[in-house]
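Readers outside the structure-tokenisation community will struggle with the description of the input data as it stands. I therefore recommend that a typical entry be quoted early in the introduction. An entry of this sort, consisting of the sequence and the corresponding backbone structure tokens, reads as follows:
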Amino acid sequence: MISWLSPSELETALRDIGGRRYHSLHPFHGMLHGGKLNRDQVRAWALNRYYYQAMIPVKDAMILTRMNDASLRRIWRQRIVDHDGTSEGDGGLERWLQLTDSLGFPRDYVISNAGLLPATRFAVEAYVNFVRDRPLLEAIASSLTELFSPNIISERVAGMLKSYDFVSRETLAYFDGRLSQASRDADFALEYVKHNATTPQLQQSVLDALTFKCDVLWSLLDAIHHAYVSPGLPPPGAWIPGAELRS
């Protein structure tokens, strides 16, 4: 158990976790951003990452239902709007589907999750269950990986545009919005955590929550790397490059 930390010390400890454990450090990301993957390996990443993107508004809705303060709900519900949009064809999830469209996946197949890696499903559902089952403070703290996402987004877009002729600025449009949205969301969540984690026990719990979320993101890349890069053995039921797609 840690000793009590001042709010600024708690922020430093949270940022230290990201500096050591955020998935920007995973070898797969270096390959993705550096042009070391082939088209099918990039497709595998986009396909599996869709499930994570699709479940983000679900976990945010769970958090929303647990907030008794209307002012908090007004702030948090913007996250759902960002992903789901305000009408058909709008929002971050639609923009991710535009990416998978451009990579040759039928939308029905992507949305069906038929080709998911089992580990992708398990990791994402573990995150949703964490948000559902843990105290509100920990659920909010688990979102603090957004503190570190603007840097990785900038690297990802620049690296992919430089390295792959099968993506474009338009097909990577999802990330344009997230640059400002992630910073806004992280600032709010960080201030909430610093204000409400008032004991060593609570502070330890928020540090553990962020660690857990970093582990979720890391495990997603472990699964994709193992299945499609090295040794390159997709498990039964997962998408296989070149195979017929069945949703």
The mean pLDDT is 95. Residues 200-228 form the longest helix (29 residues).
